[in-house]
Amino acid sequence: MENSEQKVGKVFLVFAGICIVALPFIVLSAFSFDAKPTETAVVTTGENDFDQSGEAIFINYDQLSREYLAGTSTERTLKDYYARRQYPGSPPYIPHKVEEADLAPVECLACHARGGWSEELRGHTPLTPHPEQTACRQCHIAQTDAGLFVDIDWMSVSTPRLGRSDLPGAPPPIPHELQMRGNCIACHVGPGAVASIRVEHPSRGNCRQCHVAETDAGLFSRK
Asked: How far apart are CA 82 and CA 77, in angstroms?
């Protein structure tokens, strides 16, 4: 009968033979392997579109620098904010000179998409809540001293009152329309924001999970 050492030797020889026979096939397979490209999942805008394009808050938040989001050195007031608007909610006029060489497009988003410091105005550049709208001067016009219109008795609408929470400590409602102003962090975060409406928790993301737009619709009634 064979002893244990002979049995181990035979098993080793059989294993070595299998490895010698399989080695060329392994090498050939390695050189002939054609790696298939990895398919990347593409998330369309429609899949992420919620709450009146609320995904713009997250997209804009990721594009802003950490320094701007953490900045608090602003001197803008609500008086300054409304002084550049014909009425609350209207597009503000352009408070600085606009240089156009040979009717070249004005690069407004170079300053107003990500914020920054303006030496001319000695202040932080406010962000636009709708950077996807590139025809800025379709709504925003430069200030002019020319007398284009005659005086009339037109009066502006009242500015919305802040802090109108239904309960003490409750999140205040949104006192304006969301059209063109749905990107909350553009106006409420960073050194370019108005001090009295700047929030301290921009990282919470979905602002309208707690703050809801105020409407005039009578949803409930009491008898």
From this structure: 9
pTM score: 0.61
Q: Which of 110, 108, 82, 95 is nearest to 194 (CA)?
A: 82
> For residue 129, which of 196, 73, 59, 203 has the smallest C-alpha distance?
59
Confidence of residue 39 (pLDDT cuts 50, 70, 90): very low
Q: Which of 187, 205, 204, 197 is nearest to 164 (CA)?
A: 197
Q: What is the pLDDT of residue 44?
A: 47
Q: Which helix (H) or strand (E) holds 22?
A: helix 4-32
Amino acid at 94: I
8 Å CB contact between 211 and 92: no
Residues 127 and 190: beta-carbon distance below 8 Å? yes
Q: DSSP letters of 28-54?
A: HHHHH--PPPPPPP---HHHH--TTTT
Span 125-184, pLDDT tens digits? 888 888 888 888 889 988 776 666 677 777 777 888 777 787 888 888 888 888 888 888
Residues 6+ apart with CB under 8 A from 130: 180, 181, 182, 183
Cβ–Cβ < 8 Å for 159, 82:
yes
Q: Pseudo-torsion of CA 121, 125, 130, 135, nearest 10°? A: 40
CA gyration radius, the chain: 32
